[in-house]
Amino acid sequence: MDDPSLVPQLVGWLPFILIVLVWFVYMRRVAARQGSMAEVGRENTEAVRQNTEVLKALLAKLESQAK
Question: What predicted TM-score, i.e. pTM, was given to this entire model?
């Protein structure tokens, strides 16, 4: 690329620029999805914790009724 013209240089770099741009957009979407998945995981963990407490109370009630 001894030609000092800007257009041939840009045309030469165009595939690389497009690949980097597509990769950047894809990684932003992946990061956003991971953030929402982490939030769902936290909500599920809290729901399991609450269900465990309710189940323990129910089992205690059933054991006291069986006696």
Answer: 0.52
